[in-house]
Specification:
alpha/beta; FAD/NAD(P)-binding domain; 2 domains; six-stranded mixed beta sheet; five-stranded parallel beta sheet; binds flavin-adenine dinucleotide
């Protein structure tokens, strides 16, 4: 292709994971645009945070870690985290001169020539010796399928489209999903809605007391083991349990967090369980999580039988040129930081050895 530029490393995604990787590339002597590029298809800085709902204020996010090399200080906890994090990421990109190219949509990564990878995008192609994939999950909301789903006359939406509780005023809302997003939606919507019903596949597990480092390590180890086996990763948050804070306690007492088992089918008017129980609804809100946004890697055939990509550390077992950061065990702000550093260290070693494919 005529318009193909050559670099050493392409980073796809400028969220926490991609920026952490770019920072370490820069620190270890890689020049932006000459040696590496960061490509992102979102309109502005902030990674997926820029799309999160306005009522998810900075004070409500738990344990957001700063990017390496620059603290996030003095943020107003009442401001939407989307604004706080986007502003901080914009400063970060400027401070470290990371030159993120956006909006650039990566459509496919395939085998190139001479042991290189070819990254095809909406803005032409790059040929690269190594790839850091940091595309997160926000672009792949997961919608489970249930019988009768298309017949529902009300509105169905996913967490990815949630814009705050006001639009549910006077509505009967069913929230599906036992994760942090589902409980946060219910606690917000409860005071506005005519009625709420919470359904989850498994009974939710509430976590008493502080979430200490040992518990965190155990949760990460569990996800790590899954990706080592080539299984689709679970989010770290999904294995840590739900923090039993004051808001959640109040929700349990008021009944807004009174969990019901998953319904068996959807009807035009609502949902129904085997045995005939029904709940009428105007809205079904699917807080059912996200999957890794890695469709553009499909030509490389990295997926295992189990449906995931086998990853050792951050490196794809099937192809040492490729690193997945913010994937599986590193899908948290602290995990993304560590993964960015580890991926760069590994790539430097491979590039120094000459041919990353043979290494
Ligand atoms: C609602 C919610 C709350 C959370 N709260 C916390 C918390 O309190 N603490 C915590 O540690 N973690 C939290 N997390 C997890 C955390 O946000 C992420 O794991 C972390 O920010 C890592 O982000 P990332 O860089 O992997 O992905 P993202 O922030 O999603 O960035 C990925 C980037 O890749 C780009 N991209 C994707 N596909 C392509 C493509 N094909 N071409 C070009 N660009 C592409 C996207 O535009 C995006 O900018 C939360 C997650 C959610 C969903």
């Amino acid at each position: 292709m005529n318009n193909t530029r050559e670099v050493e490393v392409v980073v796809i995604g400028a969220g926490q994971a991609g920026l952490a990787a770019a920072y370490h590339l820069r620190r270890t002597g890689f020049e932006p645009e000459r040696d590496f590029v960061v490509l992102d298809h979102s309109p502005g800085p902030g990674g997926a945070w820029q799309f999160r709902w306005p009522s998810l204020t900075y004070g409500k996010v738990h344990g957001m870690h700063a990017l390496p090399g620059m603290e996030l200080t003095g943020a107003d906890p009442a401001r939407p985290s989307a604004e706080v994090v986007s502003g901080y990421f914009a400063d970060y990109e400027r401070t470290f001169d990371l030159r993120v190219l956006r909006p650039v949509d990566v459509r496919a990564v395939r085998e190139g020539t001479g042991g290189r990878l070819l990254v095809e995008t909406s803005a032409g192609s790059w040929s690269t010796r190594a790839l850091i994939n940091a595309t997160g999950t926000w672009d792949r909301p997961f919608w489970p399928r249930y019988p009768g789903q298309q017949t529902f006359r009300g509105r169905q939406l996913h967490t990815a489209q949630y814009a705050g509780p006001e639009e549910f005023a006077g509505r009967r809302v069913i929230v599906v999903g036992g994760g942090a997003s589902g409980t946060q939606h219910l606690l917000e919507i409860g005071p506005y809605a005519a009625a709420t019903t919470w359904v989850t596949r498994r009974p939710p597990v509430f976590r008493e007391g502080p979430f200490d480092e040992d518990a965190g390590r155990a949760a990460v180890a569990l996800v790590e083991e899954r990706v080592r086996q080539g299984l689709p990763p679970k989010s770290v948050v999904s294995v840590t349990g739900l923090p039993l804070n004051d808001a959640v306690r109040a929700g349990l007492e008021s009944g807004v967090l009174d969990r019901q088992p998953m319904f068996d089918r959807i009807t035009p008017e609502g949902v129904e369980w085997n045995g005939g129980r029904r709940v009428a609804a105007d809205v079904i809100l699917w807080a059912t999580g996200f999957r890794a946004a890695v469709d553009h890697l499909r030509p490389l055939r990295l997926r295992e039988q189990g449906g995931g990509i086998r990853v050792e550390g951050t490196r794809a077992v099937a192809d040492p040129r490729i690193h997945l950061v913010g994937y599986g065990p590193s899908a948290s702000t602290i995990g993304a930081n560590r993964a960015g550093r580890a991926a760069v260290r590994d790539i430097r070693r491979l590039l120094a050895e000459g041919d990353p494919v043979a290494a």
